[in-house]
């Protein structure tokens, strides 16, 4: 284990906890704000927090427009679209259920990496993982589908659309931003601040509802912006750079557990059998698809293949990408 890996795993844990609690914070914000206003407050507080971090560390921002163009895409894919979709979804479903559906992010990441990253190939393990994972989504949605409840079903579809945005964002980050040598803090500030720009552009249309500010609403938005948007994005970007996009997306293993527990304890939400079983199946599918849980007999075949495989000299490490 490298010297930096324990710190990166800790960063992954803190980011997972922050994002797991975000679904509770969104519910608090919706007590006095519309979904688009929740997004606007979230990226506003997140941008201020990250700007202060930039000033404290004297971190310089990139000056080329191409980098900012890629960061603005991250702001759309990682911030404006999914934040608004999740907030809108939570007007129709419980925060715990939204947290469970957020666990599909690694599944979308696998699909999109296979489609758009040439070095990735479709394997039996990944195919089985995807099938199992999305079967879990069906289990989660089945009670509402059978009951004909259109509102909850639309909320669940909005969550899936949000996680698909995250999947595209992870691929975009890997292909177009990380190779440019941009620092994690700069990436985090760039995507959140451009997410604020997207929110301000949409505000005349989406954020016209009256606002009711209470200590719960303000506190929820501060926590959502500072923890669930500012700090978590810095940590997750660092994990993506150090351990890879697929591993970074596994923050959704822990966040649904935290989201369900907080929803039940703080908000008094019901923990349904479908959500627990379906969420577990989703996580099982993600674990299989990412190779964290091997298929029966796979370990033995891999070990035999490794013994038979001739030794191949390793190429020298690639030169660092200039900033």
Give an account of the 3D structure.
It is a single chain. With 323 residues, this protein is an all-alpha fold. 75% of the residues lie in helices and 0% in strands. It is globular.
Helix content: over 70%
Query: What characteristic shape results from the CA principal axes?
Result: globular
Give the terminus-to-terminus CA distance: 27 Å
Largest sheet geometry: none
Give the topology string: H per helix, E per strand: HHHHHHHHHHHHH
Class based on secondary structure composition and strand pairing: mainly alpha
What's the average pLDDT?
83
Radius of gyration: 20 Å
H/I helix tally: 13
Subcellular location: Membrane
Pfam families: EamA
Biased composition (Basic residues): 299-310
Transmembrane segments: 36-56, 68-89, 95-116, 128-147, 153-173, 185-206, 212-235, 247-267, 273-293
Draw up the topology in text:
Blueprint: H1 5-29, H2 35-57, H3 65-89, H4 95-101, H5 105-116, H6 124-147, H7 150-177, H8 184-206, H9 215-243, H10 245-248, H11 255-267, H12 273-289, H13 298-308
